[in-house]
């Protein structure tokens, strides 16, 4: 065992040469920024005395960071769960390691299958589904047990299916046709949002994304949950196919991915530069009303443009014409703008002559 520091938490982890599902107790250091943003979002939202459930707790690092980094009145209770007995023993050790910093008295640790854990418990204000691979099998029960006005957080590392490498798997798992080009991660994220919203609609729960992004080979979505048949009907109207050139993709979520007011508050609440950089980029592109961004290198190839202008030049010229424009966090080769596609293609070609 190795002792490490993440955020304000001190935890013991299993040393491993390779991160895989074969680890006795799963811990992925590359997901630290995922946990940074989770802490920051809970710190920022106007919700106190939350009952938090972590069905796939692993080492317990996420929950321990909540307990050590959030204000005392944020958490009413927190339940750590893992199906692995080794994980449960380690979670208990890690809680003990941090007991001097922990203010919450209502802490439980259980060893069950995630569905059994959620089924037996009460409704929760915050549930975090962070599996290795697809979140599919955990979604139904997680949606059921997220309380009204609660938050459901979902991670998916199943990017190969959602991003078009395995289109048949995407159809089976997510009921949609993906896209295999520079837009693949944006499309994959929107397909995943729709799938989770459809599960919510079965229980008259409208799941609206308040923060959605792609990073380091995973998708991450935070949903605000509202119990309302009317709101579900409204969300379902925002699902449809997308046509990109001659390719039909989806169905997928065609509305906003983020709550800009929330992101702005989150930016004001953090000094962590990697988090700030990502959220800044998400905030800038989220202010532009266009479902897609334009993949510059792919468009240059399509239009047979040899001298591709720099992104900075394209953005500068777009703004001169009074259009909004920004980079995108999905790829370094994309620009988001409110200029329509047909006009943009002509503009891009003339800029490259």
- What's the CATH H-level homologous superfamily of the largest domain? Vaccinia Virus protein VP39
Counting helices, strands and paired strands, the structural category is: alpha/beta
Q: Numbering strands along the chain, what is their spatial order in the largest sheet? A: 5-4-3-6-7-9-8
Separation of termini? 60 Å
Strand count: 14
Q: Provide the CATH topology of the largest domain.
A: Rossmann fold
User: Which architecture of the largest domain would the CATH scheme give at its second level?
Assistant: 3-Layer(aba) Sandwich
Description:
By secondary structure, the chain is of the alpha/beta class. It folds into 2 domains: 2-286, Vaccinia Virus protein VP39 (Rossmann fold, 3-Layer(aba) Sandwich); 294-352, 2-Layer Sandwich (Phenylalanyl-tRNA Synthetase, Chain B, domain 1). Helices cover 40% and strands 24% of the residues. It contains 14 helices and 14 strands. The protein has a 7-stranded mixed sheet with strand order 5-4-3-6-7-9-8, sandwiched between helices. It has a 3-stranded antiparallel sheet with strand order 12-14-13, sandwiched between helices. α1 packs parallel to α2 (61-69), α1 packs across α10 (260-268) and α4 packs parallel to α5. The termini are far apart.
